[in-house]
Amino acid sequence: MEGASKEKLASVSSLVTVFENSRTSGAAPRVHRQEAQHHRPGCRPPSPAESWERPTVGEALESEPRTVSRRYLNSLKNKLSSGAWRKSCQPGTCPSPGTQEPEEKRIVQELLETEQAYVARLHLLDQVFFQELLKEARSSKAFPEDVVRLIFSNISSIYQFHAQFFLPELQRRLDDWTTTPRIGDVIQKLAPFLKMYSEYVKNFERAIELLATWTDKSPPFQEVITRIQSSEASGSLTLQHHMLEPVQRIPRYELLLKEYVQKLPAQAPDLADAQKALNMIFSAAQHSNAAITEMERLQELWEVYQRLGLEDDIVDPSNTLLREGPVLKISFRRNGPMERYLFLFNNMLLYCVPRVIQVGAHFQVRTRIDVAGMKVRELTDAEFPHSFLVSGKQRTLELQARSQEEMISWMQACQAAIDQIEKRNETFKAAAQGPEGDAQEQELQSKELGLRAPQWIRDKMVTMCMRCQEPFNALTRRRHHCRACGYVVCGRCSDYRAELKYDDNRPNRVCFDCYTFLTGNVIPEDKEDKRRGILEKGSVMGSEQSLMCSFLQLLGDKWGKSGPRGWCVIPRDDPLVLYVYAAPQDMRAHASIPLLGYQVTAGPQGDPRVFQLQQSGQFYIFKAETEELKGRWVKAMERAASGWSPGEPSDGDLSD
Q1: 484-502 core/surface letters (b: 16 or more CB in 10 A; e: else)
Q2: I need a surface site. Which of 98, 135, 423, 483 has the fewest CB within 10 A?
């Protein structure tokens, strides 16, 4: 303990020497105007003849920056030498045999000693590093004064508060401990001013970056810092090390005060005040932590900004990055999904493409979708598992996650952002997330036609125009997408243009149904679609309200030798007929088979997944992907063959 006391004594003595040298060398001292005639307030009460009105904490911090007097710094020598006090009060060494200082006083003594050392560090930061760098900046013009002020932030206010108020109050209270054994009221009075640390903590990371930058950039800047760091007062520690101490100080107060409260007897007069003081210190720590959190959030936004290379600024105090990560984009033209990257903020979703050559920006922003008005739901697509749909005013995306858990996480994050922004705008509504064929959802989609980007039907999901049911071919009838409803249509059925609000009212290619709805114009009679035949039942309508639907391989001469795959549907509104489509989104079936009277038997090929329909010498042979799927189809066809309808009781369920 004696060694530690000597080190502290030497440190403060060196600080006094540096301070006196700075005064004699012409540096402008920042001394209170009454300091030359009066004793520093707080060290000891002045005599009546020397009494003067002491300023409040707020007044002192708002006044011209000041420093601690030489007399007060010299007094710290004797205060620090009292570090032997703890050793003298150890069991067996106390001057009064049989007595021992209470634990709570030991903690207060530790608080005082650490505060004395802390004020010495603050003096080094403010009066030595800060002032010497300012002096060099003014004289040499080698680096801006503003850089120095940014690095040290509000360290002058922190130094004044601790040196002129907090430390003297602690010293006075410990001196009067015999008559006033309490510390809680003092900390209660001064704790609110600890919130000034938030500014310092918030600026700390930026300050360290500036310090590193200008140390490399300016030799005079580096020379001043190196000279002070090599002095005895710095204790062979770097400026960065000293700058870290204010960041760590409030948590230190919290630990010491918590220990103090625990050691107080149940009937101690200071217990209530100490507990309140602890709560206030905790609040100050939370305030500081909130500043750190805010700093980290803005830093994260800045890093995203740099990775995107955006011209428009996303580093806005109202923006919060909620989630980011890679996904796969399901293409409506290509067979395989494509690598993409999403950034979800509280107010927008950025849909990005990774750059092949990552020089500068790492991603290119393809689409910015506003969270306001956005919707998200899961897709039931056997070809693309754990896929989901994000539908916004600017664009609708079909995305695939790497796992079911990741898909759920993305959907929850998007929905949470949607809910939050709807609550903030006081327009929160329960979004209708029913099945795709639900009448309420269809009504909602019709009302939003042209107001938001539609979900595009993928090319390979249809083999014919979804309006006129004519088959597509590569030469005379190519595929097009209606920009209003997303249907795949032929050129004849999409030879119309209408202004769409989601695309800034620019004219877009639309199908004739959407053209009529959006413009109110009547389609000429020669362009109206023909009366539907028996095969013109849309696969989408049948699949969404079906008793059974899936792909089946079609075998035998009836379907051709190639054995094509067909999308087979038994509709709920036509339960005795099997419709066979070339693709799930086709609007016209290739064939329909009335099932009434047919027999369902095992297939002739000995494959457990093969079954057939047989009636009067007619055979239709099918092959399912699994035995379980085959069993469900056999049960469904047997019901239909017997004349069963959905309203009648059944002995089983066809669903999974």
Answers
A1: bbbbbbbeebbebebebeb
A2: 98
- Rounded to 10 deg, the angle between the 271-308 and 239-263 helix axes is 150
Over the stretch 478-502, which tens digit does the pLDDT of each residue have?
888 898 888 888 888 888 888 888 8
Helix (H, G, I), strand (E, B) or coil at 161: helix
Q: Which helix (DSSP H) or strand (DSSP E) does residue 180 occupy?
A: none
pLDDT of residue 80: 40
Total Cβ atoms within 10 A of residue 258: 15
CA distance 79 to 588: 96
Q: Which residue has the higher pLDDT, 281 or 530?
A: 281
Are residues 147 and 235 both part of a single domain? yes
CA atoms within 13 A on the CB side of 226: 10
β-strand pairing of 348-354 with 375-379: unpaired
Among 321, 313, 328, residue whose Cα is nearest residue 293: 321
Q: What's the CA gap between 610 and 630, in Å, rounded? A: 7
414 and 468 part of one domain: no
Sign of CA dihedral 594, 596, 602, 608: positive
Q: What is the pTM of this model?
A: 0.41
* 481 and 514 together in one domain: yes
Share of the chain above pLDDT 90, in %: 21
- Total domains in the chain come to 4
Q: Which two tokens stand for residue 31?
A: 């001394």
Please, what sign has the CA dihedral across residues 207, 208, 209, 214?
Answer: positive
Range of the domain at 634: 539-641
- Asked if residue 385 lies in contact with residue 394, where contact means CB atoms within 8 angstroms, the answer is no
Is residue 546 domain-shared with residue 513, that is, in the same domain?
no
SS (H, E, C) 52-121: CCCCCHHHHHHCCCCCCCHHHHHHHHHHHHCCHHHHHCCCCCCCCCCCCCCHHHHHHHHHHHHHHHHHHH
Three-class DSSP labels, 193-235: HHHHHHHHHHHHHHHHHHHHHHHHHCHHHHHHHHHHHCCHHHC
The residue-averaged pLDDT of 154-160 equals 94
- What is the per-residue pLDDT for 109? 92
Residue 247 has pLDDT above 50, yes or no: yes
Q: Are residues 179 and 113 part of one domain?
A: yes
Task: Say if residues 516 and 523 touch (Cβ distance below 8 Å).
Answer: yes
Q: Is residue 368 part of a domain?
A: yes
Burial of 369 (0-12, 13-18, 19+ CB in 10 A): buried
Question: In angstroms, rounded to a whole number, what is the distance separating the alpha carbons of residues 508 and 262?
Answer: 73
Per-residue model confidence (pLDDT) at position 545: 73
Quote the CA–CA distance of 273 and 250 in Å, as a whole number: 18
DSSP 592-628: EEE-TT-EEEE-TT--TTEEEEEETTEEEEEE-SSHH
Placement of tokens 């010498």 in the chain: 617
Give domain status of residue 216, yes or no. yes
